[in-house]
Amino acid sequence: MKYKIRTESIQLIQLLKVVNISNSGGQAKLMVEDGEVKVNGEVDFRKRAKLFPGDKIEIFDQIIEIE
Questions:
Q1: What is the distance between the alpha carbons of residues 48 and 10, in angstroms, rounded to a whole number?
Q2: Are 40 and 65 in contact, with CB atoms under 8 Å apart?
Q3: What architecture does CATH give domain 2-66?
Q4: How crowded is residue 22: how many other Cβ atoms within 10 Å of its Cβ?
Q5: Whole-prediction pTM value?
Q6: 16-50, pLDDT tens digit by residue?
């Protein structure tokens, strides 16, 4: 899946909400805290990690590419 951002960056938990992987910010935070999210191949525990075009997020066998 590809997701095009309209600003310079997007926070990780915001991305999980807008692509409907999580139902809420709280659920998105738990996913990140539990180590279920990889950013560019590495598990990332930073809930507010800034994502930029070219970043690749992996969660639950889904891959999201930021454009």
A1: 9
A2: no
A3: Roll (3.10)
A4: 19
A5: 0.89
A6: 999 999 999 999 999 999 999 999 999 999 989 99
